[in-house]
């Protein structure tokens, strides 16, 4: 028996059990509605997607070419259309996730209006977006299966048994649009208890993977901005524990924690670490502080000092009451952060870098893997990087090292369009194209994401349309740039009524009211113009 027939058999037995009082309930309609609503709770989604991620992580451990990817999305519709596109063009969602970006929640989803990425937005906006994303992905399942059921009914009405068998096989092999979401909890939005409570809400909404960073919660900055302040390891470990307890309480025993370190770009700490003995974790954290050696006679009112190796050391404290790390210690601090996080319950790492450079990332990962061989990264292919300039300069430097003639290029001006069709430009583009594959093979990157690409694509596509529509092109700007492309490229939103659920609603009306149902999709529906 097929999954479709198995579900139908179960619902038929249920309706038979209730006798004539359920005569109006069609067991096939019930079976269809059950298949269209595979996931009934967010926790079911969290468990299903956690299992997927764990399998993908094991597959990557065996073969680094099996890396995974995601795009950051800020609305359920955007996430839905991304998954519909993936299924249409690539035929499978395997290895493709969604990323929920705290930056985009702040910039686009806060009731305060656009905010910087500094944990100022409502914390409830994060689980709300997770729930919204999965609502839209589940609706994509409902819509696609509804289209198949409609095709099945037509094939049956035509007596085409071959078509009936083929469509039923498509229904049985249906792949859900529901995929893992890696969700950004920022620095935890408060103390460990606050982190635990928010993590629970995120998991209940469907999150199987939560990313948390080692910045001070009330001083949190975007990873690509200045002024980042980190916390001692024991503070961060407490929040990792809080997230793990949230997963375990809710029964998602294999939930994934992504520990992010901002130490590469963070030159400040809010407080000194507690240390009990030389060389312990707190002592290692404090060893990176910018200090000056003093004697007891040098102590001034309110001074804070550290005793290390028999010496008195005074950390350099800023007027903000923050302490500064020594310049050049960022990579070493990142390595220590990552090893410590993995040794205390994290599953994946995130190292926020200032540029996309495989060798730089690999250098840190090699040190981490010397201690923890299966260490894996989630990496931000950030729009904050100028990818074109970065890679053209990398190629320029490589050519110089090889002794090649670079007199035709000016290194500081390589962003210029005049270099687009040059050998250097083509070599740089090839490095960009293969960056994810190369970095996964060499630098231990299991998951590549772009944090806020759909923020940029929304702005760019709106600019294209507004420029033409309000200019000389008028309506042609929409027709040629949007609708005609939708029709010819098979973009499902051209039938926007269907995408919004009109046909699903019509079928439900028929389920509920039979021939008395008043449907919207009749002959006079203008959506029929699109075939």
From TrEMBL:
Mg(2+) binds at residue 184. Keywords: Lyase, Magnesium, Metal-binding. The active site is at 222 (proton acceptor). Can also use Mn(2+) ion. Coiled coil: none annotated. Pfam families: ICL. It catalyses: D-threo-isocitrate = glyoxylate + succinate. Its cofactor is Mg(2+). GO terms for biological process: carboxylic acid metabolic process. PANTHER family: BIFUNCTIONAL GLYOXYLATE CYCLE PROTEIN (PTHR21631:SF3), ISOCITRATE LYASE/MALATE SYNTHASE (PTHR21631). This is Isocitrase.
